[in-house]
Amino acid sequence: MNPKEIECIRKYLDSVDLVTSEIFSQKINYNEENLTVILCLLLDENSPLKEKLKYNLDELNIDLKKYNSKLGFKLVTNEHNKHYESNYSQADIGFVFTIKNPEFGTKKKPMLIQCKKLYPEAEKFSLKNKYKALKVSDEQFKEIKKLKKKKYNFCYLFYNPLFTSFFREDCMQGMQYEHSKRYGGCSTSLSNPGIKITNTETIEYILGLDETLSLENFYEYGTSRMFEEFSSFIIDILKCNYDIIDEESRDEQILLCEGKIVKKNVVEDYEKNPAKNTIYINYEKIEPEY
């Protein structure tokens, strides 16, 4: 990817980030499901909300064409309902990236995303507010660790409001964090916490230092790489900086991201090796049962 392509893609993704965060700032009691619907709608190429974006997907494609870009990418978002999430994916969204590069060909990359929001304690937010729905002691966290052991690609996405929704002192301190060298500097013009993404290892590390997770924890313990902006995360995937593909489980992960259950059929084979009773695992694609 050349600098012009990166600039255009970042501009589009930052627009999505900004609108999502603005809506959260206006509707602070929105839950993760509400915010996830909004995020997915904004990323949809036929989105009814695209007029809210300062720079939408149509404008992105026009500019890429103007710069004679040969890059082609598509991000499909699949929302997982509560039944599918709790029983199969442990994720709110399944991202499937399709990247077309004239040099490397076409690649598909799946990513399971669990979404959490910052909860206010009063009429405004503070840096000490927590992502209350994230607990290392709950079953979901344990199930996600099991998926990670199977080399599934899994990340946490955190919804944060604009700093205008914070108490003044927290707003000023938060902006200093965003621009500080310790955090890595703000790579966009947002100057807001916005949507951040991190991996499960970072969550385990921080929760090993504090019993609960707050926005302040991320700024204190994190780095720009550990607590990444939404646009930077997507761009790193497109640039192949994230090796998020495990070849052996790629097809299974894509099905899971798309909201299609992968059911294990266990077949016992006594004839080939009756002493060891070899077990064969086959995967069958079936439609979800709600």
SSE topology string = HHHEHEEHEHEHHEHHEE
Q: Please tell me how large the radius of gyration is.
A: 20 Å
**Strand order in the largest sheet:** 1-2-3-4-5-6
The gross shape turns out to be globular
How many distinct beta strands? Answer: 8
Averaged pLDDT? 78
* Structural domain count: 1
Q: What is the terminal-to-terminal distance?
A: 41 Å
Which oligomeric state applies? single chain
What percent strand? 15-25%
Note poorly predicted spans. 181-189, 264-290
> How many DSSP helices?
10
Helix percent band = 25-40%
Instruction: Please identify the structural class as seen in this structure.
Output: alpha+beta
Query: How can the largest sheet be summarized?
Result: 6 strands, mixed
Summarize the structure.
By secondary structure, the protein is an alpha+beta fold. 38% of the residues lie in helices and 21% in strands. It has helices at 3-26, 32-43, 57-66, 82-89, 139-149, 168-179, 200-209, 215-221, 230-238, 250-257, and strands at 72-79, 93-101, 105-117, 154-159, 196-199, 228-229, 261-269, 278-286.
Notes on the protein architecture:
With 290 residues, the chain is of the alpha+beta class. It has one domain (3-257). 38% of the residues lie in helices and 21% in strands. It is built from ten helices and eight strands. It has helices spanning 3-26, 32-43, 57-66, 82-89, 139-149, 168-179, 200-209, 215-221, 230-238, 250-257, and strands spanning 72-79, 93-101, 105-117, 154-159, 196-199, 228-229, 261-269, 278-286. The strands form two sheets. It has a six-stranded mixed sheet, sandwiched between helices. A hairpin with a 3-residue loop joins strand 2 and strand 3. Helix 1 packs antiparallel against helix 2 (32-43), helix 1 runs antiparallel to helix 3 (57-66) and helix 1 (3-26) packs antiparallel against helix 9 (230-238). The longest helix has 24 residues, at 3-26. The radius of gyration is 20 Å and the shape is globular. Residues 181-189 and 264-290 have low confidence and may be disordered.
